[in-house]
């Protein structure tokens, strides 16, 4: 079972979020709620790539800096970034200065433009991989058959820094699965949001 604990307000939450108020707010208001906005989807899959080898809290602390550095993750704008932008980003102490990850986000922005042309939207593509049923929230897992399929499909389309573990973290956060613990106070809120959500076609 996914461990839980009591928050400062006495409510039961997933234990991973209890370290700081910033984490609790992210857990309560973002993590697991379904998202169909293409910019937010591109932002999250980009930040998940930056998280590789780091903690999500490190990335969350720097998220506003990342947004400023990457044109609010407007992939139309990011796709136009040049080597001068790469150099600028490598000097930006507010983000993770990893050339490979920076170049991957810029590269993936062009792949995102292609995906919109082919699929209509990023959301229409990504939500295709949401499982109809899963054991989400019951046991800790790093990847699933659906995240493996998503990573494989992205790799086939030329995307970089998106393996099955990164893909699963993306699916968790964007609401494609509800991985809140069964007794977490937010799980029922996410379930209700998913019931009202219409997956993009």
TrEMBL record:
Protein known as: DNA-3-methyladenine glycosylase I
Organism: Comamonas avium
């Amino acid at each position: 079972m996914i461990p839980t604990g009591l928050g400062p307000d006495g409510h039961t939450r997933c234990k991973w979020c209890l370290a700081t108020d910033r984490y609790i707010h992210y857990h309560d208001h973002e993590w697991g709620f379904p998202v169909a906005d293409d910019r937010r989807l591109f932002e999250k899959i980009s930040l998940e790539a930056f998280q590789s080898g780091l903690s999500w809290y490190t990335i969350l602390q720097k998220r506003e800096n990342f947004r400023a550095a990457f044109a609010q993750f407007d992939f139309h704008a990011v796709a136009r970034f040049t080597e001068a932008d790469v150099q600028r980003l490598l000097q930006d102490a507010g983000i993770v200065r990893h050339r490979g990850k920076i170049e991957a986000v810029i590269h993936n922005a062009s792949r995102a433009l292609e995906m919109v042309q082919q699929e209509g939207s990023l959301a229409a593509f990504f939500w295709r991989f949401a499982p109809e049923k899963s054991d989400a929230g019951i046991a800790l897992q790093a990847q699933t058959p659906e995240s493996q399929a998503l990573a494989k499909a992205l790799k086939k389309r030329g995307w970089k820094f998106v393996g099955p573990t990164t893909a699963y973290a993306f699916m968790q956060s964007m609401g494609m699965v509800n991985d809140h613990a069964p007794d977490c106070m937010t799980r029922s809120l996410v379930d209700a949001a998913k019931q009202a959500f219409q997956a993009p076609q």
